[in-house]
Amino acid sequence: MNGILAFLALVLMSTPQKTNNEVLLTVGPEEVTVSDFQSVFQKNNNLDDVTEEEMNEYLDLFVKFKMKVLDAEEMQLDTAKSFQKELAGYRKQLARPYLTDKQAEESLVTEAYHRMTQEVRASHILLSVDENALPKDTLVVYNKINSLRSKIVNGEDFESVAKKYSEDPSAKSNGGDLGYFSAFRMVYPFETAAFNTKVGTVSKPFRTRFGYHIVKTTDKRASRGEVKVAHIMIEQKSNATEQEIKIASDKLDQLLDFFEKGKSFNELVRYSDDKGSSKQGGELPWFGTGQMVTEFEEAAFRLENIGDISQPVKTIYGWHIIKLIDKKDLPTLEEAKEDIERKIKRDSRASKGRKVLIKNIKSENNFREYKSSLTPFYSIDFENNWTAEDMSTNEVLFTLKRQKYTQSDFAQYIESNKTPIDQTKIISTINQMYQDWIEKTCINLEDSRLEEKYPKFSALMQEYRDGILLFDLMDQKVWGKAVKDTVGLKQYYELTKENYQWSDRVDATVFTCLNEKVANRVRKLLSTSSNVRLLSSKELSLLSLGKGEYTLSAEDIKIVLNIDNPLNLQIESAKFSRGDNQHLDTSFWKEGLTNNQISDSVVTFANIYKILDPSVKTLDEAKGQVISNYQNYLEAYWIKELQDRYPVFINQDVLNSIIPQ
After folding, report:
1. Checking phi first, is residue 372 left (phi over 0); if not, alpha (psi -120 to 50) or beta?
2. What is the share, in percent, of the chain residues with pLDDT greater than 90?
3. Cβ burial, residue 366 (10 Å; 0-12/13-18/19+)
4. Mean pLDDT of 247-261
5. Integer Cα distance of 1 and 517 in angstroms
6. Does the predicted TM-score (pTM) go above 0.90?
7. In terms of CATH architecture, what is 226-328?
8. Do the strands 226-235 and 177-181 form a parallel or antiparallel pair, or are they unpaired?
9. CATH topology of domain 501-614
């Protein structure tokens, strides 16, 4: 199975290099040319260095792959709906890089990285307007925000105007100040306006999906990179009662007292109210400017040396004591490129590359538009059980690659999208839907021609197709069958069970004690059958034991030892082979208690109940290994069947011609 998976990975990474149409080999009815073979081979091997032996090994793997794909096609697995759906999903993903303009994408990466080298501080004023608002309504909002800009340009204070007029709720308290941020922290049009506006000046009005904005850029500075910190948090909500404030204050004072007495950050982090991070020693993910509340962020970046610990910092969440774990500068463009590309795909700026592509598609395919034919749609009552059949005229709206797209086609598009249409905004809504339809039509045209235009894409799709078929078939014939065929698996085990042997083992419990005091108590409780008498009444009540003789199990001892501290004692009971447990690996095996091993005050010893002789593993004990071997057996048997059904002919002269002498 591992060999096939490796070959699948190889196939899915290959790149076609069409050079030679001579037939290298046939597998059943299928011919494989030199080019077909080299397109797979040369991506992962160097023909100049390959030996005859290596080529033959590779060729054998390739032939088996081809036989299995032929078998899958004969079984018509390629017609299954599940297969077609999975392949369509892969095609959609693989097509994405081809459905955008590469040059535009590269410019976006460069632009984003340049902005990442800086941090900008900006304030804004927002006047909300719906994305689909009518032009006349949009104009009203535009004129209003333009008048606010004029007030500021003529001397009025930006903060005062923001508090009075901005429809961003936070402006009432912050005067529109958004603090520092860098690329990908704001929607793309806003980010662009902030970075392109000179410090101390106010931008012209611009629109985002939230409405119209004006931005005042108040500062720009070099990127501070990222920091990684740990923190201890004492929760105190912004609406905390006097009692809650006192509890938080007392807890903080106690924490600071512990620090003064020499307790370490790592010892005290367990008192943190941020339970999510306290399990990881208080560690938080790497962050940069604009990702944390301002007070926390500024305190973190002020820490200079690894291990530095801040004074208590107050935020809206409570009190924090911050420890610096690491700092790093902005990576190079080459290092950051993959991450930037991933962020662009999730960001609104991704549409820029798509729009450039659509423009190119229109140009290449003689796009012609007749917008006057949209007029009938503006008067339709879409709320009165309208259907596409109600569109009585059929004039052309646009042409693309000599294909006419009519009013009827657009009516079908509207109906199939089932988008609610607000009659009060019908003109802007219809216009937007019309533009969306044009763009989708252009993209669909380009998408339909990818295999024709890009041989690399065509080959990749063929390889994905074959890979999925092979995976489904391997699951039926080998992987799934080995798991589901319980009768066959048991028969195979009975025939081969001597291959599955236990070596020497011990039946034992390993005790890991917090310190020697705990270890001594454990040993004492293990040493007598009347060990129940060594327990306090509190410990007895915890175990719900009656009076009389009672032998405590290892689990009982763990329960009573961990009443006060859950870290006092950890136990592990099992049948151990060499290599399973470090303590037992370094201890002499004999029944009874082993000697103590001490590391950083932690004491480890074991109670060996019995030394077990070598024996054959049961099917359950060896199941994973038996299944793996049974899969190999099933595959070998299947390959023999395929070789009988699909004879292989290799043109040795052609093969020799591509192997360096």
Report:
1. alpha
2. 63
3. exposed
4. 89
5. 53
6. no
7. Roll (3.10)
8. unpaired
9. Chitinase A; domain 3 (3.10.50)
